[in-house]
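A quick aside before the break. I want you to see a complete sequence-to-structure record at least once, exactly as it would be stored in a machine-readable document. Don't worry about memorizing anything.
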Amino acid sequence: MQYVLLCLGGAEAEVATLLAGALAGYSCAVTVLPPSAAEARLGVAPGATGVGKVLVTTAAPPEELLRLRCVQGVLALVAVGRVGDTVDEVAKEMQGAMATNFTPALDVWRHCQCNASTVLTFRVSCLRGGAAHAFNSVELSGRLGASLLSTYPTLLKVDLVEHDVEVLAIVYGQKILVGLTLGVLDDCAKTATTKRKPPSESHRLPYAARPQREFALRPSTAAVLAHFAQLQPGEVVLDPMCGMGTIPIEAAIGFPVYAVGGDIDSGAVNGEMRAHVTSLAQHAPNAVVDALVWDSTLANLRPNCIDAVIVDAPFGLKCGKWAQLEKLLRATVQQTSRLLRPGGRALFLVHSFKKFRNWYRPANWLDVYEQPLNIGGLVAHLVIMHKPHTAPSARL
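That is the input. The structure line, written in tokens, reads:
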């Protein structure tokens, strides 16, 4: 069976490596779907269609794919093709492949959902971007839906709100793929067919079923960041701006490390984060996470005590004025240099690498590496730095 895994745009190679390791016991072929021309030119394309796409051909049960914490969504692949000049050409090209592959994909969906109903409601959603097309998302969704109805008139009925099956079409540049969603997709999957807000990743254990506030960072993104940090057993990992604790929790779930999260928002730390840590003890008893209320610019820890620091730096209008954020982040980078052990590494997820280069002294860091990523449709930058084994004599 073929699947498409949706992941963090720009981190496809990392996810493909993790996937190959997770499915080592099964026959498996993993391919990163090539980007559109615009994505290849930009490195990482903005918008919802800039999400990473990894094609997997495997005999493994779909539960193995849904178990991966670094994945935003899993599609049972129905069809892949090229976009024509008109919506009629696209529908015609997709119709044959959809008629052939829809039933096997639906069998996988039934297995995942434990649904043997003889009549299913469905809708077709469309994500489109990367190029100008002669049709819009609603038109394409309608034509693809009509093709399915004509092929399976007694099996399928349309319901745009209370549907059983979600058929997702992703149009990126001049390419299109169609699949059935097997897991709850990330909130990047906003569609043109409904204004209802899609569910977030709060369904993922150990997170509370209904947190008091929205996730600022998806758990799948935090899991990918932890893998980028190349964490080793027994290391101490710190997120000095942890908010609800998504990064330290994912680090502790994915690796045998001691994870620490701190934030100045006592409500987030003492509320959501501690509730998640309590739930973590039930679902991952070997994971160790501590929560602290503090100011990241005045971190009250001794020097050289942290092996890795992972920071999702705040940005955007809701986070305050840029001058205040710049002062905060510059001081946090300085504290990070003080706290890291020689040879330790720091990962900062920021909105501008150009501005970030003004926040640190090059003499204090080695091997500064920048990776563009698509974060919820926005292009951000993951900066990975290493602290020298011999600290410079100059002051921070």
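Two observations worth writing down. The chain is about 30% helix and 30% strand. The longest strand covers residues 340-350. We'll return to this after the break.
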